[in-house]
Design a protein that fits this description.
There is one protein chain. The protein is α+β, with helices and mostly antiparallel strands. Helices cover 46% and strands 11% of the residues. β11 (438-439) and β12 (442-443) form a beta hairpin. The radius of gyration is 30 Å and the shape is elongated. Pfam families: GerA (PF03323). It is a multi-pass membrane protein.
């Protein structure tokens, strides 16, 4: 495949425009048409699968057939388009044809032509978010069209300082990628880091923003996401206002945001639409739920295997009675249940939505009840594993949820080997990895490490907006001031 692509490109680069047209004729959707009945004969060429036929028959052919075309400049003047390109550069001609342009020639053997954009734009309508749904707040989500996505962002930030840098990445896909930032707020070092990594990418196909995320992250082997992918335009607008860099990929309904810290993975954008007390409580619940989801099953295995002396007598009676007829050790019992939960979750995600919900609910009840009745697992562990699975769903970022699902297994293995000491060792390795991890060169554990107490106002808890007059130090923004702090607290009398 690679050799064929290289040979085809060499043929196209070394040939003339007629040779390029002859090469494209091998494709069944390429049209090369000659109209000799007009005052001046012309030839048009295009890919039928890429252009809008209505534009061709309404805005191009009637004007060509009714006008005496003495030159390509006359073609440009006759057509009701502002961006008619006249060129002989084969690279531009090739790119334009493959992007949905119509090629017009007055002489079939000439190497110069006129190119008219008539691409067919097919994209779904803007709908509500599916993964980041919120009860309050905007109900718009990104789509697969980069033009529509940029419109959704610019509508929320109608300022001249919002800058867009465009790239074309992928030797086969030729995917459009846009980097967005606010000039005067975003740190130039972050912008240059993203742009340099995109320019240095050597990859054949970019089919989604997740490809970009995997290719430009600081540590590509880490389980933890170092860029946030979101489908919410309001979240992107808020991140740009903080000083983040945003990456929009054509063909993807998710937009990347960076740099990020680990605390942003537990923050839902809906937190800004409710009272700060409620938002802070929800954030603390999410942090507790993630810790519970990772640690509770390994602690159960460690305590029952090595440290049963720590269990109170009343609770020990319950555990002994629940495990009286269980032939498996706690570790195998926990592994079987964890794998069962993962199978149900994966099956529910891959099946159609209605069938998947039924499989998840009915399958969980049936399999759980049957496992307890068959004596393969205890009802206490079944409750613990179910609660751990529910707790892992509280993370608002999908990729972080996947990370939590996988982290439980190394903790579980070390708990079986060395008990609570094994859990402590796993925790040390985890913290060592997080301390070394960065996002676009910024510390991943900020504001915990390095400690930046002022950034705590929007991390574990969210303080009132009146207390957040400065942007987080984490982004190293050029302009640290969001709004004058004194004016927020001024209260005018009714008669002023």
């Amino acid at each position: 495949m690679r050799n064929w692509f290289r040979k085809a490109s060499v043929v196209q680069e070394q040939g003339t425009l007629p040779a390029l047209i002859q090469y494209y004729k091998k494709s069944g959707d390429f049209v090369h048409f000659h109209n000799p009945q007009t005052p001046q004969p012309f030839w048009i060429s295009y890919f039928g699968s890429l252009i809008d036929v209505e534009i061709l028959h309404r805005d191009i052919l009637p004007y060509l057939q009714q006008t005496a075309l003495t030159s390509l400049e006359a073609v440009r003047a006759a057509l009701p388009f502002e961006d008619v390109l006249i060129t002989s550069e084969q690279k531009k001609i090739e790119d334009a044809l493959l992007r949905g342009s119509v090629l017009i020639q007055l002489d079939e053997t000439a190497s110069i032509c006129a190119l008219v954009r008539a691409e067919m734009k097919k994209s779904r309508e803007v709908t509500i978010p599916e993964e980041e749904y919120s009860v309050v707040g905007p109900k718009e989500a990104f789509v697969e069209s980069i033009t529509t996505n940029l419109n959704l962002i610019r509508t929320r930030l109608p300022i001249t300082e919002l800058q867009v840098k465009e790239f074309t990445i992928g030797t086969l896909s030729k995917t459009k990628v846009a980097v967005l930032f606010i000039d005067g707020i975003t740190n130039e070092e972050n912008v240059n880091t993203v742009c340099q990594r995109l320019e240095n990418l050597q990859f054949h196909q970019i089919l989604d923003s997740s490809f970009i995320s995997q290719l430009i992250e600081d540590n590509t082997i880490s389980l933890f996401p170092q860029l946030i992918d979101t489908e919410r335009p309001d979240r992107v607008a808020g991140a740009l206002g903080e000083g983040s860099v945003v990456i929009v990929v054509d063909g993807s309904s998710h937009v990347l945001i960076g740099p990020i810290s680990i605390m942003e993975l537990f923050n839902a954008f809906e937190d800004y639409f409710v009272n700060w007390q409620i938002a802070s409580a929800f954030r603390l619940i999410r942090v507790f739920a993630v810790s519970f989801s990772i640690m509770v099953t390994p602690i159960y295995v460690a305590v029952l295997t090595y440290h049963y002396q720590l269990i109170p007598k009343d609770l020990m009676v319950t555990l002994v009675s629940s495990r009286r007829n269980i032939p498996l050790p706690p570790f195998l019992e926990a592994v079987i249940l964890e794998l069962t939960i993962e199978l149900l979750r994966e099956a529910g995600a891959r099946l159609p939505s209605k069938v998947g919900q039924t499989i998840g609910i009915v399958g969980g009840i049936v399999i759980g009840t049957a496992a307890v009745d068959a004596g393969l697992t205890s009802n206490v562990l079944l409750i613990i594993v179910a609660l751990a699975a529910l707790a892992s769903f509280t993370t608002p970022v999908y990729r972080m949820g996947n990370t939590i699902r996988l982290l439980r297994f190394p903790f579980l293995l070390l708990a079986e080997l060395w008990g609570l000491l094994g859990i402590a060792i796993a925790f040390i390795f985890l913290m060592n990895h997080l301390l070394r991890l960065t996002s676009l060169g910024r510390p991943y554990l900020e504001p915990i490490y390095p400690p930046r107490w002022k950034d705590l106002k929007d991390s574990f808890i969210r303080l009132p907006f009146s207390k957040q007059s400065r942007r987080p130090h984490f982004f190293q923004a050029k302009d640290q001031i969001r709004f004058p702090a004194k004016k927020v607290n001024e209260v005018k009398d009714i008669d002023e």
